[in-house]
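User: I'm writing a tutorial on reading structure tokens. Could you give me a worked example: one chain, its sequence, then its tokens, then a sentence or two explaining what the tokens reveal?
Assistant: Sure. Here is the example chain.
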Amino acid sequence: MDQELELKAPLQAEELKYAGFWIRFLAYVIDGILLYVVTFLLVLVHEKLVFLSYLISILYFPLLESSSMQGTLGKKALGLIVVDEEGNRITVGRAFGRFFAKILSGIILYIGYIMVAFTEKKQGLHDKIVSTYVVKK
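And here are its predicted structure tokens:
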């Protein structure tokens, strides 16, 4: 049985449609609800599974954003993906860098997140730190 592998070319810079603040916020809300349900159910099964729920919460964003999905379930539901400056899928290292840079975006009174609404390419501080973009697919 022959199977054809569909290779997708990276998005060209002129093709990128940057995702704005509100659609990204909605994707985050969807992800938050999903993570809450999963972690709640794990802890409900046994309270010793709280460590596993933390681990899932930490790995969820970087692993999905660096996967072939290029985004979390919330982003996928809204047709968003995370790309590098050339429109390619981001590496696991860059995805973890982005995840930890989000902590900085939050620590400074969420200004790093609010930047998405005001920057030309709709980047938050965490995106600027690791050179990523959230775009409409």
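What the tokens reveal: Residues 1-7 have pLDDT under 50 and may be disordered. The helical segments are 21-45, 50-65, 73-77, 92-107, 111-114, 125-130.
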